[in-house]
Design a protein that fits this description.
The protein is of the alpha/beta class. Helices cover 24% and strands 19% of the residues. A hairpin with a 7-residue loop joins strand 20 (578-580) and strand 21.
């Protein structure tokens, strides 16, 4: 019987279609919670899942890199397709790998997918007590208070970018602990790093991948740069961000120090997670232990590629669904993570995402989960089953990015020269309205004229991430330079301010990219995922050069936090209490918020966006009005007498108490 099952395993590598899927469906599901290593100072228990392997071995090493194993153990077949090895003794500080025999051939010796500590470059698991990784005060660590999902103001940041520039004033450059340093300054004495984040006032810091990724050699971390969207070990922090990547404990302790310090200073931490593909395909740790199972296949029986990275994982299969859930749960419980941004979430199936969010909300009721509601290519899993933007109403407490408002504001990311509303493109008013109401149903949005979505997809505003840029594609300042080459520096700066005004006053969840608050540039490089520090490093001296922009964005964040009318929690409230002015004409979007009905201290709020290159005259009507913002400038609540002349590419906000 076993020989027959081995034959099935062999044939599964070559045959396509339903037969192959049917085989994977028959793989036994292991429901225990002890995959990988269970450590004690008197013994170690190792369990891997490899249901159709003929043999499995555990190999032990003295070091995380180099040298032959000093011991090899035959693992025993156990329940539900697992293999088990229990060894007596204290092996703390040693390293391990596994290998399996399939169809008479040994796989490479690899760390298991569940590994939680590794040596250099993540090639071998490390044996140690995880409690040794806890920094002082870790048991008392608590996340800052957070009530409604629409209260979130997210700041997207790459660990190395934040500190590697000489202008950062940070000592531990490019490291986790660099972001724990306080009172760091740029050349002119303005705050940088953690102190800057506190000063800016954001609520959540979204860290680009901090799990162990494949592209950077941790023995030479300064030789190559990467964003980190090439996962190797999902449950281990990246070693190039640690002061000692050879020691598995150091990288964990230092990342926990970052989380702890952020929490103590009022910042929640969001992890960018990439479960949709692996950096390696045939040679990945998953595929070496269980060939084919963890990945989707196309009709030809080859790896499907909705990620555009060579493979896509199969979240609908029981053991990868289990892996995703247990991995994210581990980051929440062990590292006190406050949220997840799910890369190419449209590759994952709805059932898996809803199971994950249900379980994570049990642990942390105020957790924030959001993702990209699309793929980078076609997937064999039907659209109706996937966590794409069109299906967000079927997702449980999960938000998606709004490419409608993104490209409505600045122009298509696929056409570099395309302009958007903020840079003077006519006909984008309905796309801006759609973004302002967070993709919810509203009687004054003409969906036929929205750039992408022809109907509302969000049931509630907290299902929508309002943004105009992220790490992908050009940063906003570079996009404006390319698409509006004839604009003056003043005009382009006003376009930039207008774009961020729309983002930070729209309903939904606000999201900004690091450095946009002082006109960050990547020197025109569109996707800088492997560009040098000279392109990616945040130049903190730009904060001094464009301090007025920083102060303006800081004020917008304070405005949003102080006034609940800008962050309503229900779609029906937006439909009732947000009213668009239908008389404004092309290039102008204006709306009124009924502050009194929404519990705001301002009884009425009028917001005006002028996306044209001409001045426009506006009048808020009868009553005693005060000006909060006039033409992208804070006005210290001055009284309004009559009308206001709006300059080109500007935001004005007035209110009535």
């Amino acid at each position: 019987m076993k020989r027959m099952m081995m034959l099935f395993s062999f044939l599964a590598q070559f045959f396509s279609g339903k037969g192959q899927e049917g085989l994977y469906d028959r793989y036994p599901e292991y429901k225990g919670d002890d995959l990988g290593l269970v450590y004690s100072d008197t013994s170690c228990r190792f369990r891997i899942w490899a249901p159709y392997a003929e043999r499995a071995q555990l190999l032990l090493y003295e070091a995380g890199m180099g040298g032959d194993p000093f011991a090899t153990y035959e693992m025993k077949q156990s329940v539900s397709g697992t293999w088990l090895s229990v060894i007596a003794g204290n092996f703390s500080g040693k390293f391990y790998t596994f290998r399996t025999m399939n169809t008479g051939k040994w796989s490479a010796a690899v760390a298991d997918p569940y590994v939680k500590l590794t040596g250099i470059n993540g090639k071998r698991g490390m044996i140690a007590d995880l409690s040794l990784t806890n920094p002082p005060g870790w048991s008392e660590d608590k996340s800052p208070p957070f009530q409604h999902k629409t209260d979130a103001i997210i700041y997207e940041l790459h660990v190395r970018d934040a500190s590697i520039s000489a202008s950062s004033g940070i000592r531990a450059k490019g490291k986790f602990i660099g972001l724990t340093e306080l009172n760091t300054r740029n050349t002119a004495g303005h705050s940088t790093g953690l102190s800057h984040l506190k000063e800016l006032g954001v609520t959540h810091v979204h860290l680009l991948p901090v799990f162990d990724y494949n592209s950077v050699d941790e023995t030479k971390p300064d030789l190559k740069y990467n964003w980190g969207y090439d996962p190797l070990n999902y449950n281990v922090p990246e070693g190039s961000y640690a002061t000692n990547a050879y020691d598995g404990i150091t990288r964990i302790r230092e990342f926990k120090e970052l989380v702890n310090k952020f929490h103590r200073h009022g910042l929640r931490v969001v992890m960018d997670v990439v479960y949709n593909h692996t950096a390696l395909t045939d040679s990945s740790y998953f595929n070496q232990l269980v060939p084919g199972y963890y990945y989707r296949q196309n009709k030809e029986g080859k790896f499907s590629n909705a990620s555009a990275c060579g493979n896509e994982t199969a979240s609908e299969r029981a053991m990868f669904r289990k892996f995703m859930l247990e991995s994210m749960r581990f980051w929440v419980k062990e590292y006190h993570i406050d949220g997840f941004r799910v890369d190419l979430m449209g590759i994952h199936d709805i059932e898996t995402m809803n199971l994950i969010t249900k379980e994570l909300h049990k642990i942390k009721p105020d957790i924030l989960i959001y993702g990209e509601g699309w793929t980078a290519g076609a997937s064999p899993l039907p659209d109706s089953l996937r966590a794409i933007k069109a299906n967000v109403s079927k997702l449980d407490r999960i938000a998606v990015f709004s490419d409608d408002i993104r490209d409505g504001i600045k122009g298509s990311v696929f056409d570099h020269k395309d302009r958007g509303f903020a840079s003077g493109k006519p006909g984008m008013e309905q796309s801006i309205r759609f973004g302002v109401v967070a993709a919810c149903k509203h009687p004054q949005v003409d969906y036929a004229k929205v750039n992408y979505s022809k109907k509302p997809y969000a049931k509630e505003p907290w299902q929508t991430i309002s943004y105009c840029e992220c790490h992908d594609n050009h940063v906003l300042w570079d996009k404006l330079r390319i698409s509006a080459p004839d604009a003056t520096l003043e005009e382009r700066t006003n376009m930039h301010k207008l774009a961020l005004s729309i983002v930070l006053t729209s309903q939904g969840i606000s999201f900004i990219h690091a450095g946009t608050e002082f006109l960050r540039t990547k020197k025109g490089v569109e996707n800088s995922f492997e560009s040098a520090d000279s392109i990616n490093a945040i130049d903190w001296d730009l904060k001094t050069q464009h301090y007025d922009v920083f102060e303006y964005v800081k004020g917008l964040i304070q405005l949003r936090k102080a006034h609940p009318a800008f962050r309503l929690t229900l779609a029906k409230s937006i439909a009732r209490y947000l009213h668009f002015d239908e008389t404004t004409g092309e290039g102008l979007v204006a709306y009124t918020l009924d502050g009194k009905k929404t519990g705001d201290s301002w009884k009425r709020i009028n917001v005006y966006f002028n996306g044209t290159g001409q001045s426009r005259i506006i009048s808020p009507g009868k009553g005693i009005w005060k000006v909060a913002i006039q033409n992208n400038q804070w006005m210290q609540d001055i009284p309004l007498n009559g009308s206001i002349t709006m300059k080109p590419y500007s935001c004005t906000i007035v209110y009535m108490k």
